[in-house]
Amino acid sequence: MFNRRDALKSIIVGGAASVFSPNTLLASTAPKKEKLGIALVGLGYYSTDLLAPALQMTEKCYLAGIVTGTPEKAEKWKQKYNIPDKNIYNYQNFDSIANNPDIDVVYVVLPPSMHKEYTIRAAKAGKHVFCEKPMAPSVSDCMAMIKTCNDNKVSLAIGYRCQHDPNTQEFMRITKEKLYGKVRMVACGTGYFDNRTTHWKQNKALGGGVMGDMGVYALQGARLATGEEPIAVTAQASTTRPEIYKEVEETMMFQLQFPSGALAACHTSFGIQMNYLQVNYERGWLRMDSLSNYSGNKGSHSKGIIDFPIKNQQAKQLDEDCMALMNSTQLIAPGEEGLRDIKVVEAIYKAAQNGGTVKI
Amino acid sequence: MFNRRDALKSIIVGGAASVFSPNTLLASTAPKKEKLGIALVGLGYYSTDLLAPALQMTEKCYLAGIVTGTPEKAEKWKQKYNIPDKNIYNYQNFDSIANNPDIDVVYVVLPPSMHKEYTIRAAKAGKHVFCEKPMAPSVSDCMAMIKTCNDNKVSLAIGYRCQHDPNTQEFMRITKEKLYGKVRMVACGTGYFDNRTTHWKQNKALGGGVMGDMGVYALQGARLATGEEPIAVTAQASTTRPEIYKEVEETMMFQLQFPSGALAACHTSFGIQMNYLQVNYERGWLRMDSLSNYSGNKGSHSKGIIDFPIKNQQAKQLDEDCMALMNSTQLIAPGEEGLRDIKVVEAIYKAAQNGGTVKI
């Protein structure tokens, strides 16, 4: 029997006979869904305050299901968002999501240490995966996630919301089009004062530490502003609150060398409120302030300003990623982009530990 | 016979019987000079384009003499500034300046490697010394300069023009008065594209290398913005033009740890145009852009702007330093301040060479 799930698979994946290309899904003559169904896995702050509200604004997707280990949360979300019981999962029965045609995409919003497991389980269930950043605590996790998605012919997008923000895209364009010549120096600071003491961000086993969390924004600032991949790093980890940051670093300063000769001085912290990007080119400068907030990112440069309005960053990200799935176009930030960051993050930790330069 | 020089010495130094305190000159009942006579040693760009014009605007001092190894320059300056022959010296007869009552202060504007020799010769001639930054290439040079000035009961001021700039003083005030709480993070970039190839700045023996030159502005940015002395440094030297920067570094990134826990990420280059300071406090931020130009330095912070007019930075520096000499008050930037920077510069070079953290 040709059920709805099979129909969707043939639409999205392009059918078993078609040539599969990760992140580019072939078109089909079968009727397409107008909106993809998203299931959020992990109902913490980011799902609750950012993604669920964004999914009320999206045009290409909707909040179809939830996965949570907390029955009270399930009940609350069910009422608030009118989610049918059959689309509510816990971590034990999650794999049966494979049989649910309402769910096209599983969005993993768990602590980083759990990204690999839930990405792999979702991929094996035949669902596309959106995964929050940092992609995972290790390069090997990232590679396993990418491989399993490829093997199961599903797409994998990393939740780099800023790459969907036109303000970010504008500074990337200025570099790419060499408006001011080559990039010579980048400085980037991202951080906030976190007064929690027992969050996963302070827990090594759960994937905590500032580098993978806020640090990835600073790293992305440097990578996107240069349009290059770093070839060597130095780094210095520190903390001003050793009683809280026992297992992971509170603050990381890291310095990057790029193939063109461009340099970056980045810093990230759970103890310091900062959010900016400074780029010095051969013949000009650019500054984002703020760089990676949920809204209101803006900047200026030698000849102008960067201040593009955006209704909702997460809604734009979700819609654009879903459109890429529906139209078989490239995802803005596929798993490979997440992996590029984690390769650098691993090198930064190694450099911070050993005190020397680590080549990538 | 009580000649004019002796009279001046008794005015400025306060007489042999008085308790001598370096940089604080005791008042005297003897009539004071209304303007101190300055002799510039070294007539390169900075003397020619900045100091000599400034000395036409000063109220407490004037261009009384010059010391140069180039007879053509001597003739040109003599004509332009109406300098009497008796106040024109070369490097051979320089020490006879001791007998010239017109000269109260010798301003050393030579390459850094020569600062020690000319500061010491000027001090031994009984003249006060203003010395350009960087004070000298080594801590031992700085200490010898301070000691000789003390031994000869003359004052020593380092040419930190920015410390006389009210825009600099304002960000120092904001830190000192804890307007936004403690400083947590400083980022500071100072540099320009130097297209010269055989200047002393590219010559190690003459005291070249970007760290002592533009790097001192970034270091001052971090030291003045925190109001603290760094206790540990890491650093990375690099160049994009090894054919020119054979002996010294073109670019230095350096990171500082301060006793309060504040951190600084600084970068300085002869290949990158940049001039800014970013400060993130516990409860606010501050940004100078530009930080250390000859004019037009300005900034903003969480609750306001920093934009104090200044007629001429060098004239203000010269007048304030001369007033300190005449009124027996503290110099804004005495030799000890130059030494504080060079201590850190030495640690930065060591850290860059060895790749680890150097404690200060």
Automatic annotation (TrEMBL), chains A, B:
Keyword field: Oxidoreductase
Signal peptide bounds: none
Gfo/Idh/MocA-like oxidoreductase N-terminal domain segment(s): 37-160
InterPro entries hit by this protein: Gfo/Idh/MocA-like_OxRdtase_N, Gfo/Idh/MocA_domain, GFO_IDH_MocA-like_dom, Glc-Fru_OxRdtase_bac, NAD(P)-bd_dom_sf
Superkingdom, natural source: Bacteria
Pfam annotation, one family: GFO_IDH_MocA_C3
Domain annotation GFO/IDH/MocA-like oxidoreductase: ranges: 173-285
GO molecular function, one term: oxidoreductase activity
Protein family (similarity comment): Belongs to the Gfo/Idh/MocA family.
Protein name per its UniProtKB record: Glucose-fructose oxidoreductase
Biological source species: Emticicia aquatilis
